[in-house]
Amino acid sequence: MARVDVIRVKGGARLAGDVTVGGAKNSALKLMAVALLAEGRSVVANVPRITDIAIMAEVLRRLGCGVTLDGTEAVIDVPAEPGSEADYDLVRRLRASICVLGPLLARRGYVRVALPGGDMIGSRGLDMHVSGLARMGAEISGEHGFVIASAPRGLHGAKIWLDFPSVGATENILMAAVLAKGVTEIDNAAREPEIVDICDMLTAMGARIEGAGSSTLIVEGVDALKPVRHQTIGDRIVGGTWAFASVMTRGDVTVHGVRPEFLDIALDKLVTAGATVEPGDNRFRVRMDARPRGVDIVTLPYPGFATDLLPMALGLAAVAEGSSLITENIFDGRFMFVNEMVRLGADIRTDGHHAVVNGRDRLSGAPVRATDIRAGAGLVIAGLCADGVTEVGEVHHIDRGYPDFVSDLARLGVEVERTDVPEPTFDF
Ligand code: EPU
């Protein structure tokens, strides 16, 4: 009989206490790719202990690197000539492995990376990655499910305008530009803290970058970079998840390891909902002692409200007083998990990229299924506001982004367990 991994939570808990958040997944994965840009040993510290980091380590090993994951450190030994192929069996498990495209093209002049394909939150194109690298002199084609890029005469600086401040495209172009000949200007670049983290590591390696954290990045290519040790920033999405969970359960949670300024808009929305937020140095406390009020939320590229917190925003709206309008602007499939929230009794209607949510005093525990990392965490948190037991299935998705999720919940006062349950199979 097949088995499915589930997290079971008992509703009605009030989250209280301290929780420490590790390094940002979406920084650490890319910082490991940044290491490819310099021969020798780089160390990426404060990496989260999650499946995605283990997959990225394997991607780098297949490229000829020695990689040791030691606690929260990734020690990466990069050879003089890393490989140039990333296969589908790994890329399909970790879309972020597409970020080896830029660094390998810069170092090897040739790269063949499997196309990751879409996923449960939307189609997720690569056109901006491709057109940016092409402007720098790369010849790019797609064949047999791979993107193949070559720059036999090397990459050169270029002026690149992104149609949208894509995180992944900004990163790939940036990682190629640091070793290109001449100056590259990336306009309408992504401004996420994770991009600044990458720029900080690259600068420590000897790259010349101006404008990190702004919409215009100016990169002057250098001949070679040196390996470094770099500390990953804290995970603002995990931190934000606990902040929403505290408000939804009328709790009192102090989050350590994340700078509150990375969550300015999200924390401000929680204050509008009635919460008290006390920002500190690399930590913040979120308290709530009444039913939250409904708030309208619109996701946007940073510094806007993060799309990765959308499931938590929907959860908050589902238990808040009054109605809320939640608008998603980044991923076309982000609302796919809404049917699971509805199974918990949430009153949500979607139309295109808008969701109208009428808050209910309590949700009602039910078996539901995680469809991606953030939806999974959002469903577990919603289950805390439901009568009875909520059982969230396929929680391996949550493992991809939240280390220690279950033990953190337990420490904050939730009755929670994780098990494998048998699932019947039906033979034909
Ligand atoms: N897009 C294109 N063409 C491109 C690039 C992007 O159409 O060439 C579209 C995408 O289809 C999407 C939008 O632009 O609709 C935004 O994509 P972006 O490139 O900004 O996102 P990403 O790099 O694929 C990263 C994070 C996501 C996070 C987004 C937005 C990683 C590994 N992933 O994705 O995180 O939601 O930025 O902030 O860094 C997660 O952690 O659960 C997650 C999905």
TrEMBL record:
Binding site for UDP-N-acetyl-alpha-D-glucosamine: 95, 308, 330
Coiled-coil stretches noted in the UniProt entry, renumbered to this chain: none
Protein residues bound to phosphoenolpyruvate: 25-26
UniProt-listed Enzyme Commission number(s): 2.5.1.7
Enolpyruvate transferase domain sequence ranges: 9-409
Gene3D superfamilies (alphabetical): Enolpyruvate transferase domain
Active site location: 119
Cell wall biogenesis/degradation in keyword set: yes
Catalytic activity: phosphoenolpyruvate + UDP-N-acetyl-alpha-D-glucosamine = UDP-N-acetyl-3-O-(1-carboxyvinyl)-alpha-D-glucosamine + phosphate
Keywords: Cell cycle, Cell division, Cell shape, Cell wall biogenesis/degradation, Cytoplasm, Peptidoglycan synthesis, Transferase
GO biological process: cell division; cell wall organization; peptidoglycan biosynthetic process; regulation of cell shape; UDP-N-acetylgalactosamine biosynthetic process
Alphabetical list of InterPro entries matching this protein: Enolpyruvate_Tfrase_dom, Enolpyruvate_Tfrase_sf, MurA_subfamily, RNA3'P_cycl/enolpyr_Trfase_a/b, UDP_GlcNAc_COvinyl_MurA
Pathway annotation: Cell wall biogenesis; peptidoglycan biosynthesis
Molecular function via GO: UDP-N-acetylglucosamine 1-carboxyvinyltransferase activity
Organism domain of life: Bacteria
The keyword Oxidoreductase is annotated on this UniProt entry: no
Compartment(s): Cytoplasm
NCBIfam families (alphabetical): murA, PRK09369.1
The protein, known as: UDP-N-acetylglucosamine 1-carboxyvinyltransferase
Natural source organism: Actinoplanes xinjiangensis
Primary gene name: murA
